[in-house]
């Protein structure tokens, strides 16, 4: 759909996500231990009472510099931010869309740290989903556990090593709506071998259908495209979930990406890439797709 080819310790109070996802901890004990409770804010400002299994409902940025990250995304995408203790909530306009956590080098074990966007997938039953993960060849990194106000979750990796958090959110999932400019548009997992992941995610995400795209496999639920599985040849980029943000014109943002401390890995039209797509890293090294996308309603309005 989108692309043609293609130890650490966090700030006190949010040990789970940053320490385990970045991979700098030498053991689970350093990250608080399996099953320990962590408190994170809800993913919606108002309860919806809706649940959409297989939908990607949240993203947390794990970054080495929360101040520079706010500048990067604020100036590049127009996002705004609200501090909630040690946690930073991210808004696109009046829509709550994500959060920011800070990661720190573990004393005495400092080495280059790269940031990461951690995606959250909705599931009906976290404990049952965790059992499915294990049965289908995935790994439980931490949990299942209470995440306080956020709900119940389990941090996993799929058979190819891509990490994400399965969540049953308190108050429900965000309502389905057409993504606007600056909203999350898509999530796709990059892998060397897509076959095993189709079976894995169909079961874990309870997807009702799949659709073979030009270059990726699309996972569907409730008639919506929820995520993609993309085969790639580059081993260095395989085994990770990569999010995409909807933008008006990715090419027009590339100079700003560089000025704000990010890097452009692939510009629109470069090496066979779509003219509507750019692959970048932010100031902390987190991968992100900038995607121009036109919905049928947009075409009808012109």
Automatic annotation (TrEMBL):
Entry-linked PROSITE patterns: PROKAR_LIPOPROTEIN, VOC
Family matches, as CDD domains: SgaA_N_like
Coiled-coil region(s): none
SUPFAM superfamilies: Glyoxalase/Bleomycin resistance protein/Dihydroxybiphenyl dioxygenase
One Pfam family recorded for the sequence: Glyoxalase
Location of the VOC domain: 55-169
InterPro entries per record: Anthracycline_SecMetBiosynth, Glyas_Bleomycin-R_OHBP_Dase, Glyas_Fos-R_dOase_dom, VOC_core
Protein name in the entry: Glyoxalase family protein
